[in-house]
């Protein structure tokens, strides 16, 4: 039995759900609508669900003609097909520092939701107005996992990390100018954070953060129980 | 009631256990033995346990005179005092790519253990000898959280990430030369990984990885239950 | 006797075949179709064959009007004229990690073929699905030279290098985002690889990898024989 | 009349007090005690005061033999001679994020004091324990100018900048490891800050921050008055 | 009482004037005209004035339809609404090194003026023609705060810093090519300056420099008086 | 049957000779003499030969006590034990640009020799004295594989690459100062070379170049024959 | 008497010819045709000649309407008005490594000629075909000053520097891809060159190289004579 | 007739004087005293003079035992043997910005003098005290060639370049801290300078600047004469 479908230009990893818990997700950037359609057909047939990230509206419209049940989100440029039929215990809070970080934050939230996580959102709570953040301290400390998205100097995750006893996944964004260096600065800042319990994903990688958050809730669901 | 002890040169955060789940951990580098002794006394009195990282043997010996119950680990340069009296469900696997990555791997393992995590270890399984890694596939897929430590080109976490359905925390190390750039290369490599479900901490930050792994198991213990 | 044709804007190196074993190859980027036509005419007259890399479809169409026997490959943007009339012993395997690496991989394969090498191809075998790679272990170990193309974190050559007793030429690609740094990350990663017997060419330089692979097979053809 | 003393190896700028408001300050690093002694003699004779920064204890001891009234501060490695005989209105608050930032913070404070500024200090108030910082909100908002010193990810100035209506001068320090890049990371972070009203000086340049803070208070003293 | 208006995509900080002395300023880049209009409405209602930076002419025209009293400046891409009804003592001099630095210089000047500062301007006085600069020495030394804008190698602030006894705020610009590195070179140059009393803001951040200059004059107005 | 010996701190890859054609080579830097001794014992027992690179004289002397037949080379810091009992056809020429590149060049030469390659050497032929190089044109064009070692600007491989029809492996060295950036400059220069048929290894990685050269000659020996 | 014309947006340095030997040259990039026209009018009136660099054909055509005697060169994007009426002794040789470096080489040549230098040209003599270069050894050694333009790895100046007893000015170009880093690699390479007697200008700065070459010939004309 | 002496570890280029106008100069760093002695013997025998740069006092003392006529300069770490018996017309002015730049400035001056140039020196004239510089305007404009040495932000050459009609050679130094980046900042600053007629050499490369300055005076001597 083969563990992938060989399409020549691509080897679709149809065994990934067994191995990794979730079907392969399609990275839409740099693929033609036709390439995506073929890969998506295999995934839909096998798993009854599919997700495409970094997909332009144009490509999305072409795909929706073939998959009318699919739904496209303009903010995050994500296309979803199918749903999870379960929900994990706990919840993922997605926070962001500024209005311009929304596309990345929404990609994270949609990913976590599609993988079975309840999510809450807290947007535009950058550290330059610390009271906006601290006004939500209760919700923040109640979340199970926190995805903290920030561009500019990337300081928000450090502050959040100091408020909670839960894992924080920091996502730097490419929103900024000059010394922001297309996201290198918040990335370095987050990696150098003085807060413990925090880890970091690639610039603008909302998907990766949502994915890891879901793996954490899944783990809690699978092995949890009081100490 | 004050939430910290003010020592002038330091404000010891004695409320951190309530807030973050664990007492403050002392970063030993750049502090004098006397500074560490004072801070450690407050933490030991308050929490009955303490941990000091990046502590040279010389400083450790000076401290052990004051805290004879403390124990020092030469490989990781960690000093521990006290123990957790509980153990989380699940387990943390600490892997490393090469022999020279051991200090960082051991720092991660000791941190996770001291915080209540059962740990397993799989060392010197770099990708240039992929069979050494795959020979342990079963143990790898059974771990709850995986800390993957690697210097050089930092490829190990990408391979491990593709084998498991659990969160992977990647730790780049400063072991290498030339284009390794003191750990920048494995760091960038890990952040750019094609594997989902993986996040990254600072170069040589075994402590941070162990800490986040423990927060994940703690979460599972606190909120877990089958979906 | 002059060893080049002086065109004013260019000195065409008509002696290169004698010196280097192959005629000069034209780098199409940044040259006008007319400049390329003139240089190509000299090469075709002298060598009965020519190769142009990094050529847009528009320029290619203009050139094919003058050289109707020439053939253009859309994936790699390479134009070829004429053929080798020999074939080296052994074979070059061209591998790539992801679908988006195809243009570079095909440039490498076409170059090696045009220079007289039998080639085999193994595409979309990134390390996050290691079984897709290892399922081809036999073919991999039988190749004479391996060209391994990868974007993202560039981990594939390290794994391949550990499987074979043959030279590996690694090619980083500019496919990725954020910390990928337009290919700098896989480049650094490949240079820092823990695998021996591997060397690296410039980002996206499929041509250079194919060229060196052909020189290796040519050497084997010229001097080979059992020890 | 010459506006400097020409010592061959140095041209001592004896007119700087008139021009810039303060005598030249000696940068001690890389000068021999004898060179410093000669320059300092000229300054003391002319201005009755002198300041030497980045001076090792060894060199300081040699100098104190010649200038017994001089006083040396071990934390900041600053040597001072003479005093201002005035005090500006307002005050400079010097804050730092961690214990290891003290040398830079003290250099800033000593500079500002020596130039005539009342100072207050608030140390070890990093953002990972935001309550330590906010517990001092009243003092913070009452300061006239704030010098905020931070290593690691350099997030403290962003938070402080959002709390006050006064100018903030941020000073990154070289305290950190790995992605901290010897202070480049907090520097970039501070420059990219989402807080308005903040500017930045060179890594570890406590002197520069203290100097500018004093110029600001001096300006207030010179031209001030209600709008 | 809430200290911000929650618009979902944005939390407008209506308390900032009390806290920071000035209402929130809208960063126009990356926001839709509709988003800006909503935020601006809240600010206008609350404060009777508003400022939008980095706003294209197209967006400005759309906004002026809603706010006919607003005025747009093409050089700096700034939109202003309302006026201060006071003027601080002292003055801000805005200088720039070359003609191409004008947009940044004008952004700084408009910001300072809108916040209540008298300003003077001295443009195109780069150090390669030092006499153009020194011909204005008197005006330069009379300014209260100096904003010095420069692209290329960023040398102007160092020279100006040596002429005055007042705070200098240096602004690097993205004007240049090659080794100018989009403004990184003048930024590094300014941070490394041998002049005391100087601090630096982000590349092209005329707004930030103008804002800090205004805070300094405001401080002088609030607390000033002779020593 | 296990394909490695598990020493706890290391998993010795005793199957590598079968898989890769050569036994594992020990990287001496960062290992204790005792660790090296244990690993070396296993390798010597299994393969009758061993090689240790980057070994200080002190560690070498400690090892020679256990392995009296081993021989140490001071220039390259390599320890060798045992010999190949065969010699490949063809030859490897090792060239270097300057006297200070000798340690890297000798590491390359010793590696290739120990693996069965005849070698020739051409040292101190930097391009600033091009006649020194071209005086050896005949030997250069007769070599089967060329290893070209250069620090400073790394120009030598580009010139050599244009003279020959054989594969060139370029090795940048860390010899230089200032803009040489510890070898980054010759590395980038070599990767960007206008010569075809050339690939590059890590800075100072003479071993890697020698290893790949030997794999090329081995291939020629294994599969060679005229086209 | 004023030493510049103040246009508000620009201060035209009309005294530069006296001070620097040549009138101010207009950098065309980022200026409007109208701005250039005004500045050019002043220069033409004062000096009877003018030069504009980095000028697009569109802007050039608009300017030629006002200055019909002006002539525009498409390769270098330079506009010239007027001529020198003298010619320096000696000659400037402008060399370039590849066809794509022509625009920069021609900018250098036109600059030097317009300033009074006889020039010779030697193009497309990259080091990968060293015989093309050495075939011109006689002309090369006879030049008075050599401007050597190169993209890619920038090796040509090192070789030329070793052939001559005259000053070499190296110009890196932005022609290349991948590790070429938009010209940073040849720049670093040239700065690190093992050849003495060579200096470097900014990436693509043909103008600067031509200008310095002319200053050198002018010096020879002004002070020369046999020792 | 051989054009070099082959010492095995070095090929001494005894023909360089004919080719380049000057004998080979020995770079002392990284060579043993014995290696230097052998090379120096050949050069002294052939040319009656020799120069060694970057030579420690220890090595110098060892060499002076063999070459008692040699003289060593402690500031620049240069060893000289023999003298020129001619003097070029014109003069080289060596300037530096700060006291710590003296070693590099003296290396430049000694090199130029040893090669036959009259030199003048102007030290510690950094731009933060512009009057110290402008007080010497007459001498500056009278120099034939200007070598301008600066660490920190490297602004001095830009100002000097605007004052003179002669070629300026800028030398960045490694004197500074933090954002100075071991000399990268003044290097970039000098390359990006808005002054024409200036070129740049490697960080701390006083020798290279002195060498080029001498080639310029030599050219003037060889070909000069009024236009």
UniProtKB/TrEMBL annotation, chains A, B, C, D, E, F, G, H:
Pfam families: AIRC (PF00731). It comes from the Bacteria. Transmembrane segments: none annotated. GO terms for biological process: 'de novo' IMP biosynthetic process. One of its GO terms (molecular function) is hydrolase activity. SUPFAM superfamilies: N5-CAIR mutase (phosphoribosylaminoimidazole carboxylase, PurE) (SSF52255). Residues 90-222 form the PurE domain. InterPro entries: P2CMN_synthase_LarB, PurE_dom. This is PurE domain-containing protein. It comes from Alteribacillus iranensis.
């Amino acid at each position: 039995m083969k563990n992938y479908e060989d399409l020549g230009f691509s080897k679709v990893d149809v065994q990934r759900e067994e191995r990794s818990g979730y079907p392969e997700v399609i990275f839409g950037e740099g693929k033609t609508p036709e390439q995506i359609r073929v890969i998506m057909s295999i995934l839909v047939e096998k798993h009854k669900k599919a997700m495409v990230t970094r997909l332009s509206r144009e490509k999305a419209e072409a795909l929706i003609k073939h998959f009318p049940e699919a739904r496209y989100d303009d903010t995050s440029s994500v296309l979803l097909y199918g749903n999870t039929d379960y929900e994990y215990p706990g919840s993922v809070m997605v926070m962001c520092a500024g209005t311009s970080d929304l596309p990345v934050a929404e990609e994270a939230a949609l990913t976590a939701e599609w993988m079975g996580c309840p999510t809450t959102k807290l947007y535009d709570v950058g550290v330059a107005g610390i009271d906006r953040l601290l006004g939500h301290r209760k919700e923040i400390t109640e979340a199970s996992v926190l995805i903290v998205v920030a561009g500019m100097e990337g300081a928000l995750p450090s502050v959040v990390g100091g408020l909670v006893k839960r894992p924080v996944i920091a996502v730097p964004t490419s929103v900024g100018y000059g010394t922001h260096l297309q996201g290198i600065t918040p990335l370095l800042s987050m990696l150098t954070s003085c807060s413990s319990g925090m880890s970091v994903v690639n610039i603008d990688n909302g998907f990766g953060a949502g994915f890891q958050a879901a793996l954490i809730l899944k783990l809690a669901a699978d092995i949890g129980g009081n100490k």
